[in-house]
Amino acid sequence: MKKAAVSHHEAEVRELRADPELAVAYLKAAMASLDDPEDRAAGLLALRTVAEAYGGLGAVAAEAGISRESLYRALSPRGNPTLKTLVAVLKTVGMRLSVEPEHRESA
């Protein structure tokens, strides 16, 4: 009997759902990409993946007080979510924004 194939995305969602610390580390690393306009899509898609892991986009949107369509659009590769949307989604999945100093090499 053959095992059903699981997509990389499905496996990723399952791992993030099972390990909240991994979800935080995953999202933290991906959010660093938001600084680079050429790589911004990676951060938005990572937040979307975490939202899928924590109940699905529909449930997260409802709890965050955002329409599902707006959340899909905001967390798409070309999305441009507002600060209000980012904060609401992060809060819904049990996370929050924080600020860290940028690590710069000394001259």
UniProtKB/TrEMBL annotation:
Superkingdom classification of source: Bacteria
Name of the protein: Addiction module antidote protein
InterPro entries linked: HI1420, Lambda_DNA-bd_dom_sf
Gene Ontology MF terms in the entry: DNA binding
